[in-house]
């Protein structure tokens, strides 16, 4: 998407990046724009030549407390041995800086994290390129690392002022879901809206009677999709904790599996992920019986997310498609 930006705005964005980099004492470089979506992400170089990533955060999307907390959790996970990005402090010791309103930009925050080597596991909408045997290796490692992340989260005491959003019942199915009221998004057909509203009620009843083991709840990544899992010889690495918060651990598992369900090797993928998870953390058959519920819940979140971003290419058509896909998935898995 960065290649589609008008040159005047792209130049302004590069200048904004250099404005941020001044806080790290490295403004005299040409930042390389990698992604412009929720955040503008640049590849930059530190004073010692090491590569790093500069993130200009979307104005108004997360508070300073939420962003600082994200960095604190990544630091804690990294200090415990998990392969995740680590925050790099400014010259005066801050992890997060506030950039004032100016030109084309509203006031926003910026941070710098260390560079993570590896190739993304894949890209949404495109078939996975790895062999079935390699996919088993990757998803087994992914499951083990996910479980270790959950273990580390349970053993960590967040510092005072720590805040991340919740992916709980209210945030998924309440009156004000975290990513929007998916059952009444603009552009939905009346039939889609009616079906989604009925499905919401059905899912609320299922979530209210969730088996106790499936209620495992705590800090999660919440967005371990293909693009946020880097693969290399040393295993897997997790990036982009932008949506991390407090949620059901099954929500993390469902997020990873959802976009892979149409892969020819999906059965092997799911089995490998669960086996890898179980190698580090308990995951009972009773707990897994609720996985279909969380697959549907996850699919619904994308409707609201995309509806709130009409500027994205094909947003309206994709909202309709996401709604149809979520309803089809719910029917396939035995929900209303």
Summarize this entry quickly.
Helices cover 42% and strands 15% of the residues.
Q: On the 0-100 scale, what is the average pLDDT?
A: 95
Question: Major sheet, described briefly?
Answer: 5 strands, antiparallel
The parts where pLDDT drops under 50 for at least 5 residues are: none
H/E series: HEEEHEEEHEHHEEEEHHHHH
Helix percent band:
40-55%
What percent strand?
A: 5-15%
Number of helices: 10
| CATH uppermost class of the largest domain | Alpha Beta
At CATH level 3, the topology of the largest domain is Aminoglycoside 3'-phosphotransferase, Chain: A, domain 2
Structural class by SSE content = alpha+beta
Q: How many E-type strands?
A: 11
Radius of gyration from CA coordinates? 20 Å
- Anisotropy-based shape: globular
Q: What's the name of the CATH homologous superfamily of the largest domain?
A: Aminoglycoside phosphotransferase (APH), C-terminal lobe
Report the span from N to C terminus.
Answer: 37 Å
CATH architecture field of the largest domain: Alpha-Beta Complex
| Largest sheet: spatial strand order | 1-2-3-5-4
What number of domains? 2
Question: What would your notes on this structure say?
Answer:
It is a single chain. The chain folds into 2 domains: 2-116, Phosphorylase Kinase, domain 1, CATH 3.30.200.20; 120-332, Aminoglycoside phosphotransferase (APH), C-terminal lobe (Aminoglycoside 3'-phosphotransferase, Chain: A, domain 2). The protein is 42% helix and 15% strand. The chain has helices at residues 7-21, 64-79, 132-155, 169-173, 190-208, 249-258, 266-278, 285-288, 291-307, 315-332; strands spanning 32-36, 39-45, 51-57, 97-99, 108-114, 119-120, 166-167, 217-220, 229-232, 235-238, 245-248. The strands form 3 sheets. The chain has a 5-stranded antiparallel sheet with strand order 1-2-3-5-4, with helices on one face. Strands 6-9-10 form a 3-stranded antiparallel sheet, with helices on one face. The chain is globular and about 60 Å long. It starts with 6 loop residues before the first helix and ends with a helix. The model has no long low-confidence stretch (mean pLDDT 95).
